[in-house]
């Protein structure tokens, strides 16, 4: 199988692992929950948090592989250096940093749940709940760059580009959580389109 057909599969794999990580990690406590609730949750689910962190990390690895292939695809489609593909890859990098920050915090919560006091667990839980700005900015730049490049080049149908731009703008608004949820279906749509595109025989091929 050609390498060009592998990167869309990495996008699908990334979404699958992100979903599994959230399922395994479960619904973590809110920042305004009592210290007793927070402590009890992490001491009862320490193994699940560590596993979820590892799965999230592997999902991020696949996302980075997908983004590198997408960058090459968009760059080759751009007749000039218009910046869309560059903004996309910068956003993917920032998103990966944010995702691994969350993975690191989740792993720490699972690893030290039985070894530190309730106050430390409360502080880590607050970071786990609210340290989302890096992911939000990464999502914004990744989707805006992807959308601009698609709209300018028609590399895939333009509505995909406009959808990326809309979700990207929402990522830095109070609706950012829903934009993050929409990122998964968008990646699946784009990955399938790119896979099918790469699967087409070249012109003149038997």
DSSP strand content = under 5%
Kindly provide the radius of gyration, computed on alpha-carbon positions and rounded to a whole number of angstroms: 19 Å
Largest pleated sheet = none
Averaged pLDDT: 89
Record field, number of beta strands: 0
C-alpha termini separation: 18 Å
Helical stretch tally: 8
**Secondary structure: helix percent:** over 70%
Number of domains: 1
Keywords, please?
mainly alpha; 8 helices; elongated
Structural write-up:
By secondary structure, the chain is an all-alpha fold. The chain has one domain (3-199). Helix content is 79%, strand content 0%. It is built from eight helices and no strands. The protein has helices at 6-25, 35-44, 46-77, 84-112, 118-130, 133-153, 158-170, 176-199. It is elongated, with a radius of gyration of 19 Å. The two termini are 18 Å apart.
Summarize this entry quickly:
This protein is 79% helix and 0% strand. The protein contains 8 helices and no strands. The protein has helices at residues 6-25, 35-44, 46-77, 84-112, 118-130, 133-153, 158-170, 176-199.
């Amino acid at each position: 199988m050609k390498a060009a057909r592998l990167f869309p599969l990495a996008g699908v794999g990334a979404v699958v692992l992100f979903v599994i990580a959230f399922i395994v990690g479960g619904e973590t406590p809110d920042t305004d929950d009592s210290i007793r609730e927070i402590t009890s949750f992490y001491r009862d689910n320490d193994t699940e948090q560590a596993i979820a962190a590892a799965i999230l990390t592997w999902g991020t690895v696949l996302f980075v592989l997908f983004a590198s292939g997408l960058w090459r695809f968009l760059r080759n489609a751009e007749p000039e250096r218009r910046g869309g593909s560059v903004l996309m890859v910068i956003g993917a990098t920032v998103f990966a940093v944010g995702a691994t920050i969350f993975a690191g915090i989740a792993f720490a919560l699972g690893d030290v749940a039985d070894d530190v006091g309730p106050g430390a667990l409360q502080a880590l839980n607050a970071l786990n709940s609210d340290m989302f700005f890096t992911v939000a900015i990464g999502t914004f730049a990744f989707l805006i760059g992807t959308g601009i490049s698609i709209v300018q080049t028609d590399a895939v149908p333009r509505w995909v580009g406009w959808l990326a731009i809309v979700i990207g703008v929402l990522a830095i608004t109070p609706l950012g959580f829903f934009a993050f949820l929409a990122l998964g279906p968008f990646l699946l749509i784009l990955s399938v389109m790119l896979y099918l595109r790469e699967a087409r025989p070249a012109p003149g091929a038997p």
